[in-house]
Amino acid sequence: MSNILKISEAASLALHVAVILAAKSNELVATKDFASMLEASEAHLSKVLQRLEKAGIVNSTRGPKGGFKLSKPSNEITLLAVYQAIDGELSTSNCLLNKDLCNGNCIMGDLVEKLNKQVKDYLSNTKLDSLTSAIRSIKNYA
Predict the structure, then answer these.
(1) Of 5, 42, 61, 114, which has the fewest Cβ atoms less than 10 A away?
(2) Following DSSP, what letter does each residue of 85-114 receive, concatenated?
(3) Integer Cα distance of 60 and 74 in angstroms
(4) Which residue(s) pair with 127 in the sheet?
């Protein structure tokens, strides 16, 4: 069964990368290390990291001992900021069809509206530092 909540693979990788960097504090983490931990393509992660850097969420250091780290303290970065760096503004629709066909009488009642609000509130109110213990359970986390 698929998930009801749909977040792009790039945004999902970005969220995980950001929390890994929060857990590793001021350590530099290389793209290949993220790829190993997240079982993801280095090329895809490289593009995700470039977008996070452009958005000011991470800083990079080039060279053999280079890598990425957060650009500011993890208690100042929300999941929403990370998500929006990759997928843009979080827009929510109260209609499964993204149209206004039912004149406010949705077949799902107010479920879609409530779920969208709950997700946006979670992303807006959750800082990276509050998730660092969860990320340590990744099997390749070192």
Answers:
(1) 5
(2) HHH-S----SSTTSS--STT--TTTTHHHH
(3) 16
(4) 78
R_g of the chain computed on alpha carbons: 17
Question: Model pTM?
Answer: 0.89
Nearest to 113 by CA among 102, 129, 126: 102
- Spans of all domains in the chain: 9-89+128-135
Q: Which fold has domain 9-89+128-135?
A: Arc Repressor Mutant, subunit A (1.10.10)
The pLDDT tens digits of the residues spanning 52-95 come to 999 999 999 998 889 999 999 999 999 999 999 999 998 777 77
- Give the pair of three-digit tokens for residue 37: 């931990």
Q: What share of the chain is helix, strand, coil (3-state, %, to 5)?
A: 50, 10, 40
**For residue 110, what are its two tokens?**
């107010």
* Closest of 76, 78, 101 to residue 14, by C-alpha: 78
In the numeric block, the tokens 């990759």 are attached to 86
With contact defined as beta carbons under 8 Å apart, do 37 and 141 qualify?
A: yes
